[in-house]
Amino acid sequence: MANDLHLKIQLWDKEKDGILSETALVNRLEQQGYRCTRYTYPQGTYFVEHSHTADKIDAVLKGRFKINMCGESIVLTPGDYVYIPVNAPHSAEVIGDESVVSIDAVKIS
What we know:
By secondary structure, the chain is mainly beta. About 15% of the residues lie in helices and about 50% in strands. The strands form two sheets. It has a five-stranded antiparallel beta sheet, covered by helices on one side. It has a four-stranded antiparallel beta sheet with strand order 3-8-5-6, with no helix packed on it. A hairpin with a 2-residue loop joins strand 5 (about 65-70) and strand 6 (about 70-75). It is globular, with a radius of gyration of 13 Å. The model has no long low-confidence stretch (mean pLDDT about 95).
Protein backbone atom coordinates (compact mmCIF):
# COMPACT_ATOMS: atom_id res chain seq x y z
CA MET A 1 0.00 0.00 0.00
CA ALA A 2 2.79 2.46 0.87
CA ASN A 3 4.01 2.31 -2.74
CA ASP A 4 0.70 3.86 -3.86
CA LEU A 5 1.24 6.88 -1.61
CA HIS A 6 2.63 10.15 -2.88
CA LEU A 7 2.61 13.77 -1.81
CA LYS A 8 -0.57 15.63 -2.74
CA ILE A 9 0.10 19.36 -2.44
CA GLN A 10 -2.33 22.25 -2.71
CA LEU A 11 -0.92 25.71 -3.38
CA TRP A 12 -2.72 28.90 -2.38
CA ASP A 13 -3.71 30.83 -5.50
CA LYS A 14 -4.11 34.52 -4.66
CA GLU A 15 -6.02 35.14 -7.91
CA LYS A 16 -8.56 32.38 -7.18
CA ASP A 17 -8.41 32.10 -3.38
CA GLY A 18 -7.92 35.73 -2.38
CA ILE A 19 -5.46 37.04 0.18
CA LEU A 20 -4.03 34.35 2.44
CA SER A 21 -5.12 34.62 6.06
CA GLU A 22 -5.45 32.18 8.92
CA THR A 23 -9.24 32.54 8.81
CA ALA A 24 -9.43 31.84 5.08
CA LEU A 25 -7.16 28.79 5.30
CA VAL A 26 -8.93 27.35 8.35
CA ASN A 27 -12.33 27.91 6.72
CA ARG A 28 -11.22 26.04 3.60
CA LEU A 29 -9.96 23.07 5.63
CA GLU A 30 -13.01 22.98 7.89
CA GLN A 31 -15.27 22.95 4.80
CA GLN A 32 -13.40 19.78 3.74
CA GLY A 33 -14.27 18.13 7.08
CA TYR A 34 -11.11 18.81 9.11
CA ARG A 35 -10.68 20.02 12.70
CA CYS A 36 -7.91 22.63 12.79
CA THR A 37 -5.31 23.52 15.41
CA ARG A 38 -2.69 26.25 15.07
CA TYR A 39 0.90 25.50 16.10
CA THR A 40 4.15 27.45 16.03
CA TYR A 41 7.32 25.41 15.53
CA PRO A 42 10.64 27.17 16.24
CA GLN A 43 13.70 27.05 14.03
CA GLY A 44 15.35 23.61 14.21
CA THR A 45 12.16 21.67 14.95
CA TYR A 46 12.28 18.16 13.48
CA PHE A 47 9.60 15.47 13.67
CA VAL A 48 11.02 11.96 13.16
CA GLU A 49 9.15 9.57 10.90
CA HIS A 50 5.73 8.83 12.35
CA SER A 51 2.14 8.21 11.25
CA HIS A 52 -1.35 9.16 12.40
CA THR A 53 -4.56 7.25 13.03
CA ALA A 54 -6.61 9.65 10.87
CA ASP A 55 -6.17 11.48 7.58
CA LYS A 56 -4.61 14.89 8.12
CA ILE A 57 -3.38 17.99 6.38
CA ASP A 58 -0.32 20.05 7.27
CA ALA A 59 -0.73 23.66 6.15
CA VAL A 60 1.68 26.60 6.45
CA LEU A 61 0.83 30.21 7.31
CA LYS A 62 4.40 31.42 7.89
CA GLY A 63 7.87 30.02 7.31
CA ARG A 64 9.11 26.96 5.42
CA PHE A 65 8.17 23.40 6.43
CA LYS A 66 9.71 20.37 4.70
CA ILE A 67 7.59 17.20 4.53
CA ASN A 68 9.08 13.81 3.60
CA MET A 69 6.84 10.87 2.70
CA CYS A 70 7.47 7.69 0.70
CA GLY A 71 10.77 8.89 -0.75
CA GLU A 72 9.35 12.27 -1.83
CA SER A 73 9.84 15.64 -0.19
CA ILE A 74 8.38 19.10 -0.57
CA VAL A 75 9.03 22.42 1.14
CA LEU A 76 5.73 24.08 2.01
CA THR A 77 5.61 27.89 2.08
CA PRO A 78 2.78 30.18 3.21
CA GLY A 79 -0.56 29.01 1.83
CA ASP A 80 0.67 25.54 0.84
CA TYR A 81 -0.73 22.39 2.36
CA VAL A 82 -0.18 18.68 1.97
CA TYR A 83 -2.50 15.71 2.49
CA ILE A 84 -1.12 12.97 4.78
CA PRO A 85 -3.20 9.75 4.55
CA VAL A 86 -3.99 7.67 7.62
CA ASN A 87 -1.04 5.47 8.68
CA ALA A 88 1.33 7.03 6.08
CA PRO A 89 4.88 7.24 7.50
CA HIS A 90 6.25 10.78 7.15
CA SER A 91 8.65 13.23 8.77
CA ALA A 92 8.74 17.01 8.89
CA GLU A 93 11.17 19.80 9.70
CA VAL A 94 11.38 23.57 9.89
CA ILE A 95 13.66 24.90 7.16
CA GLY A 96 15.48 28.20 7.44
CA ASP A 97 15.87 30.64 10.29
CA GLU A 98 12.27 31.56 11.08
CA SER A 99 9.56 29.74 12.97
CA VAL A 100 6.77 27.96 11.12
CA VAL A 101 3.18 28.79 11.90
CA SER A 102 1.21 25.72 10.89
CA ILE A 103 -2.39 24.61 10.76
CA ASP A 104 -2.66 20.96 11.75
CA ALA A 105 -5.92 19.66 10.31
CA VAL A 106 -7.31 16.25 11.32
CA LYS A 107 -10.15 14.63 9.38
CA ILE A 108 -13.30 14.41 11.49
CA SER A 109 -14.65 10.87 11.38
